Amino acid sequence: MQKTAEAVSLGHPDKTADYISCYILDRMLEQDKDVKYAAEVLIKDNSVVLGGEISGDVSFEHLPKYIKQALAEIGYDERYASVWGDFAVNPNKLNIINLMGVQSSDISRGVKADGWGDQGVFVGYACRGENNLNQELFLAKKLNDALYEKARKSDNWGLDIKTQITMNDNVIETAIVAIPMLQDEDLTDFIVSVLGTRPRNIIVNGTGRYTYHSTVADCGVTGRKLACDFYSTACPIGGGSPWTKDPSKADLTLNVYARILACENLADNDECFVYLSSCIGRTELPSGLIKTIKHGVVSYQNLWINHRPSTLIKALGLDKPIYTRLCKMGISGVTPQNSHISLQI
């Protein structure tokens, strides 16, 4: 049976938008650990639009600097601009449109009472395999990471990278790579060395040419690459974008928690799914369920979770400026080993 998963680098316009939002949140948390934050980012060509709400003891004075620093961390710096010119975003030509407001008082009254800042449904997933991930997603991410790290040091490879892996009965049937190049290169040996085997089919830059990239070739918007950040087609996506909110909103916190619970409850099963929901202004989660699959047999276990948001946020370390790191990892990159979770059901 064929199974396919895709991964994208931070240089992809949508992930660039995610990273900018996370970078600003990290800087806001450094000023006020209780900041309330919901910031969407749209980036096209060299224009950046910020929209949303931020409330707390914070300053917006350095927003232009933060955006430029976020781009530089991705690799879109002055050196990159000198190599690629008009083919990619230029941090020296940024035009920033700031449409930020403050959090609604109707929402803040529930958050101040230590309730969740939004309602929603959240899903965690784990399966047998490296990093408790489905093989096609693990390999797509692995190949993407390797290409991106080499591209950061290259004067020929660009940073806006997509990879896609199709598995068929544990064999890599097709590996697809989209990577900007000034001069065409044969990537076959590199792809084989990363994957550890030769795919039956390898496709690099399917149109035959890929130079215009990043926000020059595409408009980037926060939250549009959730299938890559979560579990591809192996599992439903829960909540909204985890990269545009402070932890009280639940979109990041409960998705991270659900992933950790799925890893912890996988045991000797083939797959584990964790389903959670939240109610705005309330502490107790309206529903919680663990579903495990072993040799085709499905089992269910109800969960009752009444951790205060502040307790769970602190246990996960989400009251600290770690959001750019999480954005790099994706929700599917979280494991109990690289989180701070210490709570028991």
TrEMBL record:
Which keywords describe this protein according to UniProt?
ATP-binding, Magnesium, Metal-binding, Nucleotide-binding, One-carbon metabolism, Potassium, Transferase
| Domain (S-adenosylmethionine synthetase N-terminal) ranges | 4-81
Q: Does the keyword ATP-binding apply?
A: yes
Q: Does the keyword Membrane apply?
A: no
User: Which residues belong to any copy of the S-adenosylmethionine synthetase C-terminal domain?
Assistant: 215-333
Stored InterPro entries? S-AdoMet_synt_C, S-AdoMet_synt_N, S-AdoMet_synthetase, S-AdoMet_synthetase_sfam
Query: GO molecular function: any one?
Result: metal ion binding
Q: Name one GO biological process term.
A: one-carbon metabolic process
Query: What PANTHER family does this protein map onto?
Result: S-ADENOSYLMETHIONINE SYNTHETASE
Q: Tell me what this protein is called.
A: Methionine adenosyltransferase domain-containing protein
In which organism is this protein found?
Candidatus Enterousia excrementavium
